[in-house]
Design a protein that fits this description.
Keywords: Calcium, Hydrolase, Manganese, Metal-binding, Repeat
Structural class: alpha/beta
Catalytic activity: O-phospho-L-seryl-[protein] + H2O = L-seryl-[protein] + phosphate; O-phospho-L-threonyl-[protein] + H2O = L-threonyl-[protein] + phosphate
Largest sheet: 6 strands, mixed
GO molecular function: calcium ion binding; Hsp90 protein binding; iron ion binding; manganese ion binding; protein serine/threonine phosphatase activity
Cofactor: Mn(2+)
Number of helices: 25
Strand content: 5-15%
Strand order of the largest sheet: 1-5-6-10-12-11
InterPro entries: Calcineurin-like_PHP, EF-hand-dom_pair, EF_Hand_1_Ca_BS, EF_hand_dom, Metallo-depent_PP-like, PPP_dom, PPP_phosphatase, Ser/Thr-Pase_EF-hand_contain
């Protein structure tokens, strides 16, 4: 009996063990399938965000090219030309002393009730740290101190080279940060984790400090303050968003004008000049190149010059000195500027892009690399700038600037277009996996460059690594091109809370990167990976519904060819039609539960599906659907034109300016917008009948709502209220 008992026990044990193993296999299989589904959702969410972002950038460059075309081809008396001329009318040909008088802060008084930080110059570390703490506590710096700090920064940048050179021998580590995009919380977290800039803690910031986020001006003021305190230990590269034209579209211009209503225009003009003087490249230990966007197969650092906007190539015009306070009639004068240190000019125009001479860093060492004596002299100037009195620094800077000879305009401008293309590549380019170098048509500017271009560039210049930013990465950083190109992005939660981590990198004398990742918001703490994916997916789907709405007419035209007599369409045909129109390469069958409210036997009523999407305000019902779609699709472009036309930055434009704005849009889109449509838009938008159009109010009218989801939300809210009453 004992033997039988043991046999039975052994039998049942193995049976239970077998069931447990089967269950474990099933659970493992289920989890793998679940993880795969979550990864699919994560990837298509990311694809949606990036597709929308790059399409918007492309629209911005197309718009600017169109406005540039108007400037180049319309007569000076043209109404359209007059509307937009001020964004090209730089008046840069004035002497710096005249600009300094224009930016003077002496007539701005600080009231006694002002409780924010008060700055005295030259700045010191304590004041810079106090400024960080003030911004952390949501205080605002008075416009007098803003202008003074910016003016001091502009003066310093004018004596710095266009290529920063940094050595790790002066410190154990150098910290490099990528895009911040107005997200002050990320910068504060970096300082918390890594320490503030100092003699022992040098930093390189790689551009795109502004736009999209709400605290761009605060980030700039903090970075400029530390630059003034530690000019030999804080290095700022220019990004593609350090451009006054880009700022019109992506929020920085609006932010400054809202925060500094009285002196915002002067602050923006001074920032425009500062952006044009920001260095483009930083080289660490002659081995690591840091640049915002990237390189191309023709990148020649010897050709780098500076421009106010990298979006518009300069014109061959002979500059003339005019007074800064006068309105110049010569609207189409582009800036003809002095060469920065670190760039060469040539007496003859260059040939085709393919024939550019490739030069190594050693080839222009006489221009960029400094002798010990020259290095000492620059360090001495920087030290005197930060430690001496204002007047002494001003004399030093003035002598440094006056020593630069005036450019030979005809010879200089012959090379401007080629130098402009070089800068565009540095600020806008992206790496790709395949060999070669092709135009970056996704963004609309710069290029895509491959591993072979990276290899050749590094070999020619005796470098080992390129660090660039410009692209959001889910982990905050990403290697490519055999780990010879590193993309670094420091703005966490860029697309949505939980969408990505930010990162910064430390480089020591061994030049081996050490990464620190983070997410700045407390909202992501405690959220699981699936919860993060779900939250981000929700925002991405909202963006996707907007795209479906603005392509409604195109989709209807295509769907009418394949629907049956009942007006229903199978999901396969629906998915194919959407992909044919939107070209987003998304798994539409997988997405259909989130995009389609109901189906019948695997088919959907596409008319009912479209009725669920509508604009917020019903007052636009009298305007034909295709026009609404067009205006909605190009609402960012429309707002950009509004901001350009609104020359006094009041947020209001007259009916006539509104009419001209829509005429400009119609010319840009190559479509007719009738006077009847314009009048209807005026009537529906001017709700208070004051004879002007409020830009923000007009843009709010073009906000999309999902009617079906809105109705479900209202029903749920009503049910909760009824339960509270009954309870």
């Amino acid at each position: 009996s004992k033997k039988c008992y043991k046999l039975l026990h052994h039998f049942f044990f193995h049976r239970v063990l077998l069931k447990a193993m089967k269950a474990a296999v099933l659970i493992q299989r289920w989890y793998r399938q679940y993880a795969a589904r979550m990864e699919v959702r994560r990837r298509y969410t990311w694809n949606i965000f990036q597709s929308m972002e790059y399409a918007d950038l492309q629209d911005q460059i197309k718009l600017y090219n169109f406005l540039g075309y108007l400037m180049d081809n319309f007569t000076p008396s043209s109404t359209e030309r007059n509307l937009i001329s001020h964004i090209f009318r730089e008046n840069e040909v004035c002497r710096d002393a005249e600009w300094e008088r224009y930016f003077s802060y002496n007539n701005i008084t600080v009231p006694d009730i002002y409780s924010g930080p008060r700055l005295t110059f030259p700045l010191d570390m304590d004041q810079a740290a106090h400024l960080v703490e003030a911004f952390k506590n949501k205080q605002q710096l008075h416009s007098r101190y803003v202008l003074q700090l910016l003016l001091e920064t502009w003066k310093l940048l004018r004596v710095l080279p266009n290529i920063n050179r940094v050595s790790t021998c002066h410190s154990k580590e150098i910290t490099i940060c990528g895009d911040l995009h107005g997200q002050l919380e990320d910068l504060l977290l970096i300082f918390y984790k890594n320490g503030m800039p100092s003699l022992e803690k040098p930093y390189v910031f790689n551009g795109d400090y502004v736009d999209r986020g709400k605290d761009s001006i605060e980030i700039l003021l903090i970075l400029f303050a530390f630059l003034l305190v530690f000019p030999g230990d804080v290095y700022l590269n220019r990004g593609n968003h350090e451009d006054h034209i880009i700022n019109l579209r992506y929020g920085f211009t609006k932010e400054v004008l809202n925060k500094y209503k009285l002196h915002g225009k002067r602050i923006l003009k001074l920032l425009q000049k500062i952006f044009s003087w920001l260095p483009l490249v930083t080289v660490i230990d002659q081995r690591v190149l840091i640049v915002h966007g990237g390189i191309s197969d023709t990148t020649d650092l010897a050709l780098i010059a500076r421009y106010v906007s990298a979006l518009r190539p300069p014109k061959k015009k002979t500059p003339s000195r005019t007074n800064v306070y006068a309105d110049s009639e010569r609207y189409d004068e582009m800036i003809i500027c002095k060469n920065r240190r670190g760039s060469l000019t040539f007496p003859k125009p260059f040939g085709a892009r393919e024939s550019f001479q490739r030069r190594s860093l050693q080839d222009f060492s006489s221009t960029v690399a400094r002798t010990l004596g020259e290095e000492f002299e620059v360090r001495r100037r920087q030290a005197e700038f930060s430690l001496s009195s204002f007047s002494k620094s001003h004399r030093i800077l003035s002598s440094a600037l006056s020593s630069d000879s005036e450019p030979e305009s005809s010879e200089f401008t012959d090379t401007c277009n080629d130098e402009w293309k070089q800068i565009l590549d540095l600020l806008w380019s992206d790496p790709m996996s395949q060999d070669g170098c092709i135009p970056n048509e996704v963004r609309g500017g710069g290029c895509y460059w491959g591993p072979d271009v990276t290899e050749g560039f590094l070999n020619r210049h005796n470098l080992q690594l390129i660090i660039r930013s410009h692209e959001c990465k889910q982990d905050g950083y990403e290697f490519c091109h055999n780990r010879k190109v590193l993309t670094l992005f420091s703005a966490s939660n860029y697309y949505e809370v939980g969408s990505n981590r930010g990162a910064f990198v430390r480089l020591g004398p061994d030049l081996v990167p050490y990464f620190v990742q983070y997410q700045a918001t407390s909202m992501t703490r405690g959220l699981s990976f699936p919860q993060n994916v779900k939250r981000t997916e929700h925002t991405a789907l909202k963006v996707l519904r907007e795209q479906l709405f603005v392509h409604k007419s195109d989709l209807l035209s295509f769907l009418r060819l394949i629907f049956d007599l009942t007006g229903l369409i199978c999901l396969n045909d629906w998915a194919s039609a959407i992909e044919r129109v939107l070209h987003l390469d998304l798994p539409w069958r997988v997405l259909h539960p989130q995009l389609v409210s109901s189906t019948t036997d695997g088919k959907l009523d596409y008319h009912g599906w479209f009725r669920d999407l509508a604009l917020k305000k019903p007052s636009s019902e009298h305007i034909e659907q295709t026009m609404l779609e067009t205006l909605y699709r190009h609402r960012s472009t429309l707002e950009t034109i509004f901001r350009i036309v609104d020359t006094d930055n009041s947020g209001l434009i007259t009916f006539e300016d509104f009419r001209q704005t829509l005429k400009l849009l119609s010319a840009y889109l190559k479509m007719e917008i009738s006077d009847e449509v314009i009048n209807e838009l005026v009537i529906s938008t001017d709700t208070n009948n004051d004879g002007s159009i409020d830009i923000d109010e007009f843009m709010e009218a073009f906000r999309l709502v999902d009617k079906s989801r809105l109705e479900r939300g209202k029903s749920l809210l009503k049910l909760m209220q009824d339960n509270q009453i009954n309870g």
